[in-house]
Automatic annotation (TrEMBL):
Protein name as it appears in the record: DNA polymerase IV
Taxonomic source organism: Aeromicrobium erythreum
Cofactor binding: number and manner: Binds 2 magnesium ions per subunit.
Recorded family membership: Belongs to the DNA polymerase type-Y family.
Enzyme class: transferase
PANTHER family, A to Z: DNA POLYMERASE KAPPA, DNA REPAIR POLYMERASE UMUC / TRANSFERASE FAMILY MEMBER
Presence of the UniProt keyword Magnesium in the record: yes
Any one of the GO CC terms: cytosol
Length: 404
């Protein structure tokens, strides 16, 4: 749907498609295009191929197999989903500081203040979807609208792997045409009650008096539902609390990587995280390296710095030492993911190391940041990155202990 920037709302609802199943398919390409269910005795998530046979979440596995005899059942891997969620929320954080996580696989984003530097909300949403696909390897659907409610409805209608914008001048028609069960808070029981009273669309709810609606759903729910049906949803997008760590990771796929090639990827990760630390006015006391090998096992190592810092080269040197201790394993076992995290964050100013060298000079970092702010993240790159085909854009992990 083509719209002008002035005709677009500024709330995005981003929702990963069949999250658990998508992570499994990403990590095992042989599952692509096949009906997949994640779970044990109960289906936790189903791919869209499985859903086409009637398989859905919370369904018993026996019933799912009766509906789809070819169903491939994969045991859940909670750590993999948490890791993927953090990487996706990193893309959200790189998009806007106003991110409100709803669950492990969805969030609201407010992008109203970004028009001058990022373009229309629909352009920002398009870039966000591209970045999630590029950095994390997962499909995501996004709705763009004036309110959180309409944005959430739009993202649901955009699935799978789509984008839907609700223009301001079309939102009433869009809203009133929806079935009554699209209202937040209307579940199966309430739907039955409303249908029994011949209330089938949101337009039917909007035409009712609150008192009349209260006789069907109760006074508390009536006010809420009538407000939504009338287009009223004043709830703002509330930003997440200050993070306790920042990090980045990059999925490398199944292609063979040399230890030196992994170092180049790690350089891009550290460079991006260090810049975010400086932008936030924070320093890090500890660096952590995470490597996932070709057999899907992982190795994590950390190092505490002599002084908290946000200097790129200091963080990079410490992390490269951790990586080089794993060169042998990488060459022998292969690598599918590399991640970097800076933790022990502090809001206090940084003590400069003396004597200052070109590698640790904060002026160099500041100058590079200024160039990238003005001309884009790819405006300045290190010589070793050129011609290597490595992506410059890497995601930043949300806080340790965050819901996502």
């Amino acid at each position: 749907m083509q719209t002008s920037a002035e005709q677009e709302g500024t709330v995005l609802h981003a929702d990963l498609d069949s999250f658990f199943a998508s992570v499994e398919i990403r990590d095992d390409p042989s599952l692509r295009g096949r009906p997949v269910a994640v779970g044990g005795g109960v289906v936790m998530a189903a791919s869209y191929e499985a859903r086409a046979h009637g398989v859905k979440g919370a369904m018993g596995l026996r019933q799912a197999l009766r509906l789809c005899p070819d169903l491939l059942v994969v045991p859940p891997r909670p750590h993999a989903y948490s890791e993927a969620s953090r990487a996706v929320f990193a893309v959200f954080a790189d998009t806007t500081p106003l991110v409100e996580g709803v669950s492990i696989d969805e969030a609201f984003l407010e992008v109203g203040g970004l028009r001058r530097i990022r373009g229309a909300p629909s352009q920002i949403a398009t870039t966000l979807r591209e970045q999630v696909r590029e950095r994390v390897g997962l499909p995501i659907s996004v709705g763009v609208a004036r309110t959180k409610y309409l944005a959430k409805v739009a993202s649901a209608m955009a699935k799978p792997d789509g984008l839907l914008v609700v223009p301001l001048d079309d939102e009433r028609r869009f809203l009133l045409s929806l079935p009554v069960q699209a209202l937040w808070g209307v579940g199966p029981r309430t739907t039955e009650k409303l249908h029994a009273a011949r209330v089938r669309t949101i337009a039917d709810v909007a035409r009712m008096q609150p008192g009349e609606l209260a006789t069907l759903v109760g006074s508390g729910a009536a006010g809420h539902l009538h407000a939504l049906a009338s287009g009223h949803d004043p709830r703002p997008v509330r930003a997440r609390p200050s993070r306790r760590s920042m990090g980045a990771q990059h999925a490398l796929g199944r292609d063979e990587r040399t230890p030196e090639g992994v170092e180049i990827v790690l350089l891009g990760l550290v460079d991006r995280v260090a810049r975010r630390l400086r932008t936030a006015g924070r320093t890090a006391a500890t660096v952590t390296l995470r490597v996932r090998f070709g057999d899907f096992t992982s190795s994590t190592a950390s190092h505490t710095l002599p002084r908290p810092t946000a200097h790129t080269q200091v963080l990079l040197d410490a992390t490269l030492q951790l990586l080089r201790g794993r060169h042998g394993e990488i060459a022998r076992r292969g690598v599918t993911l590399v991640g970097f995290q800076a933790s022990g964050l502090d809001d206090q100013g940084e003590q400069l190391l003396l004597p200052l060298t070109s590698a640790t000079d904060p002026g160099l970092d500041t100058a590079l940041d200024a160039v990238r702010d003005r001309f884009g993240a790819r405006a300045v790159r290190r010589g070793v990155q050129l011609g290597r085909g490595e992506r410059a854009h890497m995601p930043t992990l949300p806080d340790d202990g965050d819901e996502a």
